[in-house]
Amino acid sequence: MADQDAQSPVGIDPPALPVLRWAEPPEGPALVLLDQTRLPAEEAELVCTDVPALVRAIRTLAVRGAPLLGIAGAYGVALAAARGEDVASAAELLERARPTAVNLGYGVRRAERAYRQAIGKGADPERAAAVALAEARALHWEDAEASGHMACHGLALLDELLPGGGGHRLLTHCNTGALVSGGEGTAFAVVLAAHRGRRLRQLWVDETRPLLQGARLTAYEAARNGMPYSLLTDNAAGSLFAAGEVDAVLIGADRIAADGSVANKVGSYPLAVLAKYHHVPFIVVAPTTTVDLGTADGASIIVEQRPGVEVTELTSPRAGVAGEDAVGLPVAPVGTAAYNPAFDVTPPELITAIVTEEGAVSPVTGVGLAELCARSSQVTIS
Ligand SMILES: CSC[C@@H](O)[C@@H](O)C(=O)COP(=O)(O)O
């Protein structure tokens, strides 16, 4: 049996600060972020008054997670427009800030297109900036709505796959909750729905080396919501499966290729292999905005490579990023080379289901992803 003694405290106060908010003058124009690099130690705001500051916040993971990156990118375009700057160059800078999460480019292009169309119809730059901001707000709201639908579809699927009455023991990786979303998240929103429906027996939280999104952020969200949860090191997952303590794995996604391959936080693929071996459902939860039908397969997904110092030192995500102070504690000899991909790719044959706001599909059989995307009311950007 896995050690269940160390149940974490419940009922911690909710954060006083929103994950992301737009500030009008005189405070702005600015995009104000809950700085995720400082959680759980403190809830601090990071005020981005221009696009370079926002790009830095994206690269250092002060703002992160696929859906929230899309929302932040859209507000970033609105910020450039509100400052009277060159919107096309700002959009390019933002889109290039991180390569794997497809939502970032989606949000950026959506706001930029709205701005361009307004200008094309004769709007002055000030009016077009308001249009870009309205588009960012629409995306923000749509993501919240999608999150609610994913929670419903995901919980229904869990109940179908795990009919026993003892409550679900779920394992998750990285952070997929309110910190990455306009709403309550993707995979974590399903866990939360299970918890509210009194069907969550245990949440297993992978710490998610090297930047500890699981330990720092998912544990923080689980505690705030009063869930029964325990943290494990990523390499303890195997023994947990072997002990029969995991009923299902739930993760998010940064990009889903047309063949159903899923790029997500590094460490997801080994979990999928473990789940397959132990006959445990492996479920991906993501909005249709994370599906990239223009990318044919997993091999075509660009995986972000992060600085090696994130592996060779125990530190905050800020270390190793140009212009930021590296304050890490070395855990390897100076000069040690490191392999540090931010994501890995799980092939469709290891995935039980992909849950979107439009419903669930099996990536290898049944209704295809393309059909779900066609059904979605999300704005299409070519
Ligand atoms: C709903 S979030 C899905 C993914 O974006 C999440 O699992 C993840 O991998 C985030 O990676 P991060 O590098 O922290 O941005």
UniProtKB/TrEMBL annotation:
<feature type="active site" description="Proton donor">
    <location>
        <position position="254"/>
    </location>
</feature>
<comment type="similarity">
    <text>Belongs to the EIF-2B alpha/beta/delta subunits family. MtnA subfamily.</text>
</comment>
<comment type="pathway">
    <text>Amino-acid biosynthesis; L-methionine biosynthesis via salvage pathway; L-methionine from S-methyl-5-thio-alpha-D-ribose 1-phosphate: step 1/6.</text>
</comment>
<feature type="binding site">
    <location>
        <begin position="264"/>
        <end position="265"/>
    </location>
    <ligand>
        <name>substrate</name>
    </ligand>
</feature>
<dbReference type="InterPro" id="IPR042529">
    <property type="entry name" value="IF_2B-like_C"/>
</dbReference>
<dbReference type="InterPro" id="IPR037171">
    <property type="entry name" value="NagB/RpiA_transferase-like"/>
</dbReference>
<comment type="function">
    <text>Catalyzes the interconversion of methylthioribose-1-phosphate (MTR-1-P) into methylthioribulose-1-phosphate (MTRu-1-P).</text>
</comment>
<keyword id="KW-0486">Methionine biosynthesis</keyword>
<feature type="binding site">
    <location>
        <position position="98"/>
    </location>
    <ligand>
        <name>substrate</name>
    </ligand>
</feature>
<feature type="site" description="Transition state stabilizer">
    <location>
        <position position="174"/>
    </location>
</feature>
<dbReference type="Pfam" id="PF01008">
    <property type="entry name" value="IF-2B"/>
</dbReference>
<dbReference type="InterPro" id="IPR011559">
    <property type="entry name" value="Initiation_fac_2B_a/b/d"/>
</dbReference>
<dbReference type="InterPro" id="IPR000649">
    <property type="entry name" value="IF-2B-related"/>
</dbReference>
<feature type="binding site">
    <location>
        <begin position="64"/>
        <end position="66"/>
    </location>
    <ligand>
        <name>substrate</name>
    </ligand>
</feature>
<dbReference type="InterPro" id="IPR005251">
    <property type="entry name" value="IF-M1Pi"/>
</dbReference>
<feature type="binding site">
    <location>
        <position position="213"/>
    </location>
    <ligand>
        <name>substrate</name>
    </ligand>
</feature>
<dbReference type="GO" id="GO:0046523">
    <property type="term" value="F:S-methyl-5-thioribose-1-phosphate isomerase activity"/>
</dbReference>
<keyword id="KW-0028">Amino-acid biosynthesis</keyword>
<keyword id="KW-0413">Isomerase</keyword>
<protein>
    <recommendedName>
        <fullName>Methylthioribose-1-phosphate isomerase</fullName>
        <ecNumber>5.3.1.23</ecNumber>
    </recommendedName>
</protein>
<dbReference type="InterPro" id="IPR027363">
    <property type="entry name" value="M1Pi_N"/>
</dbReference>
